[in-house]
Sequence to fold (156 residues):
Amino acid sequence: MKQTVQMKNIQEKLQPGVITRDGFLGSDQRNLIDILEDDEARVRRIKLTHRQIADRMIVLRDAGMTGLGDFISVPPHYEIRVDSVRGKLPCPFGDPGILPKTNITVRNMKKNVEIIFTDLHIHLIGSHGFYEGKGSPFRLEPAALVDILEIKPEEE
Ligand SMILES: [Zn+2]
Fold:
């Protein structure tokens, strides 16, 4: 799909060294619009919305916050650690305001898997449907989020 000038400007902010050292795109050479559409299709196939995924991340982050930087048990079978890191980041999509740098580690003890995400990820997914480019060290696969965080489509 054709990329708008606005998308092109956002894509420039996603390059290494602009907002973060590593950038958000990894080795992904596609236009941002195509990255977004591809993940949109993935999420739609599993009958979820970006908002539902982000909301689950928020619930688990908030539950983990009470551990004050240490792992804490969260029912039914999670261990969650929330680390606040100094500094704040702006949204590459140009929203006003800045986001705290918070690392959230969620271990699913039943499945024996863990996933690490940040407050910026939650915002990028919930507000922009952006999971980062393929090959980005910080890309979150929608399917992995759904599996590890056990996100279920709402009953119809
Ligand atoms: Zn934003």
